[in-house]
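Hi there,

I know you've been waiting on this one. I reran it after we fixed the sequence typo, so this is the corrected version. Both the input and the resulting structure follow.
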Amino acid sequence: MEFILITGRTIDQGKFKEHAKITEKYMESVAVCEMHIDDMMKIGVRDGDNIKVITKDGSVVVKVKRSKRIKTPGVVFIPFGPWVNSILPSETEGTGMPQLKGFKVRIEPTSEPVPDIKELLLKTYGSKK
């Protein structure tokens, strides 16, 4: 199913990034996709299930979370962090800042695991040779 992806900061994302980006708490705060409950029901997922978020630039597996702030079905939110960065385009159109909001994404349920930060970075950037 297709959605519009919005990214941004959250209190938890900001709080845990100050401690260490390799902690479980940081991963739990940013490797999530908030969705409207109606959308969750349409694609057949429950709070805490794994979903695959797909853009033209790649895909990533994250946990789905019922959103308390999204009021409109069709919009999803992923906090800033390596998981969302792995599926966003790096092109800046000469501004020096990539776009971070308003992307079309496809979302589907998956049994694939959410990658930890090491797995994610190796998948996104490859290994050092």
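Quick highlight: The longest strand covers residues 58-66.

Best,
R. S.
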